[in-house]
Design brief:
The chain is an alpha+beta fold. The protein folds into 2 domains: about 1-70 and about 120-235, no CATH class; about 75-110, no CATH class. It has helices spanning about 60-70, 75-90, 90-105, 140-150, 165-170, 175-185, 220, 245-250, and strands spanning about 1-5, 10-15, 15-25, 55, 115, 120-130, 135, 195-200, 210-215, 230, 235, 255. The strands form 3 sheets. A 6-stranded mixed beta sheet has the order 1-2-7-8-9-4. The longest helix is centred in the first third of the chain and has 14 residues, at about 75-90. It is globular and about 60 Å long.
Length: about 260
């Protein structure tokens, strides 16, 4: 790691390889393009900017944890099931089974469930990156640089005090995409632009890893070229007994038919 002498941002080396889950029909390097004039960023991903952003994780377990987080059994739903079980004097497992059967009978997916066909058409890809500068957005020097550079503009996106890791890892998309857009536009002290952002998975580190995720901006694709410094393999199918998939289901409390 080094600190950029021009911007104050913390610069780190990128991954040589990283993992990404994507639909085969779209491909691993064809994310949704975000519009320059889009005002509603609620549906944007954390560090999207106008243009295209590709996300990847340092290992397959983290990639699948991120990809499946939308289906996890939330604490509020678990608490509801516990209260219902206590009221009827039944076990939590029995009440959960009855609720899930009712949801399925009505054609809905219950919280904590994903359909078996979620895996159909999705592949786990390995991305390879050429060397370049990435910004560690969770580093104290980066936070200080962002606080200094954006100043009062942070108040317009509900940062009342100072920017911290709580905001970086939170779900406030107006804020996180403001940060990523500013970082993307910076010219570093060596004359280069950042390739993207390294950020911590909100699910934490796994095994001996760091929990790193990566947001890569497809700058060249955004201007109609095809020579971005990233490539992808042909992908592998995600079978139900895939260890990383099974890990993500268990960690999120998800069931699948």
């Amino acid at each position: 790691m080094r600190v950029c002498g021009k911007t104050g941002l913390a610069i780190v080396d990128g991954p040589s390889q990283a993992f990404r889950v994507a639909k085969e029909s779209y491909g691993p390097l064809n994310p949704q393009e975000r519009g320059l004039l889009s005002e509603n960023r609620a549906q944007w991903y954390r560090f999207d900017t106008p243009g295209r952003t590709v996300y990847a994780a340092e290992d397959a377990k983290t990639a699948l944890l991120e990809a499946l987080s939308w289906a996890r059994m939330t604490a509020s739903h678990v608490e509801y099931l516990k209260k219902t079980a206590n009221f009827f004097g039944e076990s939590l497992a029995t009440i959960r089974k009855e609720v899930e059967e009712q949801w399925h009978a009505n054609g809905h997916m219950a919280p904590g469930w994903i359909p078996a066909n979620w895996r159909d058409g999705r592949l786990l890809y390995t991305l390879s990156f050429e060397p370049g500068a990435w910004i560690d957005i969770s580093h104290a020097d980066t936070l200080a640089a962002l606080n200094t550079a954006l100043g009062s503009l942070l108040y317009t996106v509900d940062v009342d005090d100072t920017l911290t890791l709580a905001e970086i890892t939170g779900g406030h998309r107006q804020l996180t995409t403001l940060l990523s857009s500013w970082i993307r536009d910076q010219v570093l002290d060596d004359g280069s632009y950042p390739l993207g952002i390294r950020f911590p998975s909100k699910h934490g580190a796994i095994d001996q890893g760091h929990g790193y995720c990566w947001a890569f901006w497809l700058r060249r694709a955004d201007i109609g070229l095809n020579d971005d410094v990233v490539s992808a393999d042909t992908g592998t199918e995600i079978h139900h007994d895939n260890p990383a998939y099974a890990f993500a289901l268990t960690r999120h409390g998800i069931k699948s038919r």
